[in-house]
Records
---
Amino acid sequence: MTENFEPTIIGFTCNWCSYRAADLAGTARMKYAPNVRLIRLMCSGRLDPTFVLRALSSGADGVMITGCHPGECHYIEQNYKALRRYLLLKRVLKGLGIEPERVKLIWASAAEGAKFASETTAFVEEIRKLGPLNWGKARDQLPVISEPIQREEVAA
Amino acid sequence: MSEKKLERVGVYVCHCGTNIAGTVDVVSLAKWAEEKLKHLGVVVAREYKFMCSSLGQELIEKDIKELGLTRVVVAACSPHLHEKTFRTAAKNAGLNPYLVELASIREQVSWVHTDKAVATEKAKAVVAGAVSRVIENKALEEIKVPINPNTLIVGGGIAGIQAALEIANAGFHVYLVEREPSIGGHMAQFDKTFPTLDCAACILTPRMVEAGTHPNITLLTWSEVVNVSGYVGSFHVTVKKKARFVNEELCTGCAICQEKCPKKVIDDVFEAGLGYRKAIYTPFAQAVPKFPVLDKENCTYFIKGTCKACEKFCPTQAIDFNQQDQYVDLDVGNIILATGYDLFDARRVSNYGYGRLPNVFTNLEFERLSNAAGPTSGNIVLRDGKTTPKSVGIIHCVGSRDKNFNNYCSVICCMQGLKFAHLVHERTGATVYNFYIDMRTAYKAYDEFYQRVLEEGTLFVRGKVAEVTDAARYEHEKGKLIIQVEDTLIGKQRRIPVDMVILSSGLQPRHDAKAVGKQFGISCSTDGWFTEKHPKLDPVATMTEGIYIAGCAQGPKDIPSSVAQGAAASARVLDKILQKEVALEPIKASIDHDKCSGCRICNGLCPFNAIAFIEDDQVSDINPALCQGCGTCVAACPAGAISGTGFSDEQIMAQIDGLLFRNLLPVEA
């Protein structure tokens, strides 16, 4: 493990709760680790597990998934579906030989800027302990796949 | 795909004064974007002090026109603040507004990080992500839907009545649905209202009558909403009108049936269990509508098959034992939920003895006790119905501000406790103790009322009551209720014997709030109150377009605030009605029928019932008007047949690559 390893993390937020928590952390000038780069989705239910795999294979050392607390989803219950997929995804990651701890689900309401900040920093530290994933490099040696996987083949 | 024509992208980096420029090297960021993202189509990258200013916007508009930009990235604040600003600017310059992307480098970078080099590096990643994403953005058009001018209001308490009157007075039709036989809500049960001590009925009943006689208001009492479908502008609602067994066309409201009915029933709704009503009844004399309701469960005729006293004596033959429940279908454009609250069940705090010690009352019981129209004609007496108490203890925060029950403050209890103290004092001359944790008398003329009650000689003990017991330890405690409390101002345990205890039970969400929320497609907070769109700036709207909330359904509040929210919600509805049509965000999912295998996985995932299966074609289809755009089905489709506008797989994949700098100009090895 490198001495000064700075993890790169992709974070998914939902438009209604956790993205607003990130906004609130900003407005309140709460400081947190700079390693997480956020993507806004409308809902954590939008999170296709392949997004996580894509991020990990493209050089991210960890992926943070955030959404509204159970029972507070803007879309009523879609965060439960994110939870289901998250649990399945962790098993898939294990099967692929990736530490399942590299992916973490965090609930944060729009009022929880402080929680968003502290959870982010804590997750960065967890990934720092795990060390770099180095999949990005392995991927670089593979032929570049610019097209998304043709899913018709699966359907056929 | 790789041979796609390059878009012409403009990148605009905002200094936001020093808000961004203080932590991010904005000049080098812009320069970097222009160089390193050139191969993606970035033709210009500028930085400016305040992009949101009119000069900043003009800068972007000018470039769109002169440089022929086809995509715009603004690296500035959160899209929740200025996305609309820059989309409008693009629109003004002739660019589709959905081809603009905001990169939040203030809330997500400059405000939360301190090291300039690190912050600038992260800002580069955020911009790279946004550029990659914007290239995949598609031009979208807002969806316009017409607004049906009729409104449904659920809940006929003061908030619902206020909202109904405002809309009806503006000239639009309102359907006011109420579960109980009469409108009026909790306010109709109260005696006096703080801090002015107006009689609740005196100020409420004129409003009730106005609502009941208004040509633009259709009252549906003794009714419940059983089904809701549709979306803003055109909701279809089914209301179950429970059988009253009284023909409303014929009934004159003379109340002879109530007089003649031989069956007495304990009224645990309106009289809080302290009084009786008949099996055929109106909950109170001024009920609106005036038509009584026959309670089938308790009616002698329905139980034994004989009686029919009401029918015999009705001068207009209005009693109809064969009446059935009716289902009424309504088409409305907007819905206001003003469903109110339930009272916290004081039995749950077993150490206060409610339900076990007869002279422990709840606040609602006391309201009925002190009400001149109540079971004791306004005489404040003990449970025996005749003894006037010589000393009364009022316990605040029962079930509120308590980790074991509800964490929140129920807002009304302090003022209510003061009101009770005043009433007891005035009518019985008894010694009154208030046991409080903190005294909260915010708002106009409230604290003055507190001062007044202090001057009247009410005794205040600061401390949370540990126990109410009838186990006397000393001679003077015999036959009394003893309140055991730590007086935190003198730091001592006290035992205060009183004749009567009143518990200020807190407010709770309706027991069925979750189910009602689900029916209307809105969510509840962890405490169970309906969630507003924004706690400060949008307290009566919800995340579902066309559904508004008012009064205690949104959270505990007093009468003035409930009225204000009712009026606020009606203003929001009128705004929608007068626009005649509403523009919906075009963030929707759609299904490519050629790719759909008809597996129906998506069908069950949609909480808005927007996905239907077309039997003939064996494929699923999404109703764009019902779709709220969460994207859960997009993520679930195993065939990749569902795509989501605004948040497509392509956009998100591109953004992931950008954020990880995989989109930079490849360095020659």
---
Amino acid sequence: MKKSSLILASAGALLLMAGVYLAFFVAPDTVVRIDDRELVQFSQKIFYFHVPVAETSFVFLVLGGLFGAMFLGTRKRSYEQMSYAAVEVGFIFVLLVMITGVLWTRAAWNVWWEWEPRLTTFLVLTLMYSGYFVLRSSVQEESAKARFGAIFSIIAAVNVPLTFVAGRLDSLKPVHPKVFTLQGASMEGPMLAAFLVSMFGMLLFATSLYIMRLDLLRAREDIEYLKEELEVG
Amino acid sequence: MEFQEAWPYVVGVYMSIWAVLLIYVIVLQNKLAAVKRELGSLSKAVERKG
């Protein structure tokens, strides 16, 4: 493992552990009052892991689209590799959002799935990015694979703002909670601290994964180059 | 949903995050090690050929 990715992974893991401590032992519990009874909503603790995972997936998917656009503009192979690595890491987090989201939906709403705007648009996003990998694996020629992949990564990245906005349009009757609004965060200090620590830890860990994936792609490119050298020689 | 009913979901969320991330790290590390071995042997072959 490269030194930079090792440092990032370790720092990320430490922050994630600190996030767990803050979420469970420092952040106050969410309490709801039903018929003069106070109920502690323990499932709300999922928020501290689910939301950072979702935000991290958005960051890497948007980066994937940006690098894809840079590849199309410059035709530099390194941008295509950066785009692919970012989309792959982003997709790992997309899968985690689906897993953690389904568990939270069951815990909070007592159903495994709800066809509401945020969940539906995120499902569309997941299916589109699954298509990205199918598309890449179905094209044999390297330059065409890079070109199609870059175009698809830009188109698919449009889903990120769509998913974000879908959960905020009142006309669509969203039931997904809105924590961050233009008026600020609807959280107290310790809750916000727990969230930010988890968020930052997740981003650092994801960046270390991205560096590892990029290393792998570059090493494979070196192998192809050396193989060509041997054949020519 | 109170603690008694909610804790399996909360633990499930946390464990699934770490399980998926660790599996991905292990897969990447294995692939990197294999690719670096291949890179090393190819570099030696190129050197031998001059």
